[in-house]
Each structure stands twice: as structure tokens, then as C-alpha cells.
User: What shape does this take?
Amino acid sequence: MPSIVQTLKGIKAFVMLLLDENGNLKPVWELSDSLLDSRAFQLAVASMKTIPEVADILAERYIAPTHDLEALLQYPPDSLGYTYASHMKQLSFKTLEPEMKSNSDSSYIENRWRQTHDIWHIITGFNTSEIGEIGLQAFYLAQLQLPLASLLIANALISVSLWRPQFLSPLLMAISQGWNMGNKAKPLIAQKWEHFWEKPVVLLRAELNVQPVNFCEFALISV
Assistant: This one.
């Protein structure tokens, strides 16, 4: 169970995130870290372990080496590797290194979703606008039941309802789409993406039963 200190840190991070207008990711990581030992995370892990392919990757604790974006740009333009690397380059994003040892199921899941977060963007079609990010969190929630996803969605709903109600409808649409997509898709956390760099994104989506949203659907919406 999380300590009182962890809980207070999580509450502080939630409030900071609610008030932040600059897209600062630090409160997200602090909120996420505060939930690692939570009962909700334990229940999420137990649920994931009922899916054989997820149980297998949890037992293996597969973590790939740092993604070499320059090398991935050598793959065909329609491939996962090229699409992912060009996405990262275009947005000036850096690959995320594991920040903790994967010495438990929860720490492994935390490391793996952080390492592959932008690949999930590619597969689902959700862009990196604030609404697109929350749509992806709804996808995470359907697939993984992680408490961070539900709290980020709750935070976004509170923020929009209080200060930017004109964006409530598109936000709810993104949440609905992400949730429905996540329930229909095969488990993305079980995928060893690094084995599929050469595969066309279209083929991967079909194999994983993902019907992506229009990648530009939320491009003009910034909350």
C-alpha cells in the first residue's frame, strides 16, 4: 500500500496538473510514481495476468534497448520503424529511458508503457494534442486499467468543465473513442514492437484489431 507521503505527493501532483497551463510533464510522472504501490495498480496487474500473452511478457519483463531513431529512419516509409522515428523527429521528442528497475510487475509495466507510449500514438492514430493524449489514456484504461489513466482523464474533465467548457464535447468524444478502441483491440502491452520495425503500420493495426482515429481529427483542438 502507498505510504502517506506517496499519497500526499500524488494529491499535490494532481492539483499541479490541474492548474498547469504549460504542458509540464513533471506532475504526470510524480502522479504516476505515487500510484505504483496502490491497490488500484495491484488490481490492474491481476487483471492483466488473466490474459496469457500479457502474463507471458510480464513474466519475461521484456525491455528493449534504447530506440535508435536514426537507424529506424532507414526502414521503408510505411513501416512502424520509419513512422515512429519520423513522428519523434518531427515533434522533437526524445526516447524515454527506464527510470526505475523493473523488479516488480508494476515497475515493469510503468517502464514499458513509458518506453512505447509514442508507438501507441502511431498505432491508435491519436495525436499529441491534449485531447488526443486523453483519448489515448482512455485506450490505456480500457486495456490496462491503470489508475494513472483514470486520474488523467478525471483531471482533464475537471479542467475543461471549469475553465474551457467549449471543449467538453470533443474531449468526451475522444474518451469514448479511446475506450471503445481499447476494448476491441488485442493487448498492446504484450507486443514486442522492436521485432516489428519493418512491418507496415497498416498491417500491424489490422493484426491488432485497431481501427485508428483520424490522425488529424484533434489537430486543431487545443485545450
